[in-house]
Input
Amino acid sequence: MKVDFYQLSRDPADKVVPLLARNTLKAGERLLVVSADDELTGKISARLWVGAESFLAHGLSGGPHDARQPILLADVPQPANGARFVIMADGVWQEAALGFERAFLLFDSSTIDDARATWRALDGREGIERRYWRQDDAGKWEQAA
Output
């Protein structure tokens, strides 16, 4: 499985999630976006509806049509929509993410220590490929060493 660490130094999570969501859908995958922060979930939902290219259909978990949602927003990593990709948008790693094909951990300065601890904890675990991404001053994402 791939675990991508995204350091949010320029753009907030609610701006980065739509980019990752769009790329996930283009790859033919479904997505679960996890955040225990209701305010952040609301911001992400709003951004998904008003994307630059077009809106990204999604739903909040617990609804009657969870299984049909291409993007599902939830507070726990349980893919009721059958997602194989998960974004931990609130910077909190959850071991259940290891059950997905690909996981994205978005973290900022307030959760950087936890992200570092997660990076170290995943080091050397069989079948896990870790990658670290950061934004340059122009907003472009680049893989860092």
